[in-house]
Amino acid sequence: MPATTSIPEVISLGAVYANTMAARTASFTGTETASLNGAPVQITVNGVDSYWRRDATYNQTITIGGVTTVNEARYVGAATYIAIPATKRTSMSAGKPWLQYSGLSSLDTSGYPTDVIVLLESHPTDVRRVGPRIVDGTPTTEYQAQISLSKAPTYGALLSGLISQFQTEFGQVSVPIMVWVDTKGRVRQIHLSFSGSGNTENQTLHLFNFGEPVDVLAPPASAVHTEPAPSSSAQG
């Protein structure tokens, strides 16, 4: 008889996070749909991320109330470059196609779309195996758990902002999470779904192409306008 693999009822999602990060790189796609204060929001994102060097690039499409904007960002080491639409370059970037804030690292800005997987490092509770699932053509096992926001890591502006959003817009102290884990113990898909205070939100992130080379280049210096980072009060 062929050998069979026993699938555990309970696994360490912290170990799943570590296995995912050990791959060092991945490509990703993500979607987010929400209703915030009555306004419909839809976001799609795709890109590549190098966990090891913290280099990444992504394209993001945001639709709020029927108005769509498309964004591109590149993270190269500690530097963040934001593509500026042609119609806004005169007012935002001295006519140049890229903007960089001096004195502001990539972890101080919008963060990385893949930062959401850091939530797995926060000792999730009530971890339960749901069963085998096929995700993007890959065999996985689905798990469900609860994330306590008081224990969630808060480094990185994106993750800090996400946790603050959970608490203020949804009035939640914990968040249900669904994770699809491949046979190498890595995240293939992660999903958050929550509601409260009249708002709803669903987020899904897919990871694939683990370990493939990621080479993100900074824009040419001649194409970049640099200006001082906005103050924290201005950002808030």
Structural notes for this entry:
With 236 residues, the chain is mainly beta. It has a single domain, classed as Clam (outer membrane lipoprotein receptor (LolB), chain A), CATH 2.50.20.20. Helices cover 13% and strands 47% of the residues. The protein contains four helices and twelve strands. The chain has helices at residues 13-22, 89-92, 157-169, 232-235, and strands at residues 25-36, 39-50, 55-64, 67-76, 79-83, 98-102, 125-135, 138-148, 174-182, 187-196, 199-208, 224-228. A twelve-stranded mixed sheet has the order 7-8-9-10-11-1-2-3-4-5-6-12, with helices on one face. Strand 10 (187-196) and strand 11 (199-208) form a beta hairpin. The longest helix is centred in the C-terminal third of the chain and has 13 residues, at 157-169. The protein is globular and about 55 Å long. The relative contact order is 0.21.
Entry summary:
This protein has 236 residues and is mainly beta.
CATH class: Mainly Beta
Number of domain modules: 1
Number-wise, the strands total: 12
Portion in helices: 10-25%
Mean pLDDT: 81
Number of helices: 4
What about the largest sheet? 12 strands, mixed
Contiguous low-pLDDT stretches (5 residues minimum) are 1-7, 106-110, 232-236
CATH fold assignment = outer membrane lipoprotein receptor (LolB), chain A
Q: How much of the polypeptide forms β-strand, as a percent range?
A: over 45%
- Overall, the morphology is globular
Order of helices and strands: HEEEEEHEEEHEEEEH
- Please identify, by name, the CATH architecture: Clam
Radius of gyration: 19 Å
Separation, N- and C-terminal Cα atoms: 62 Å
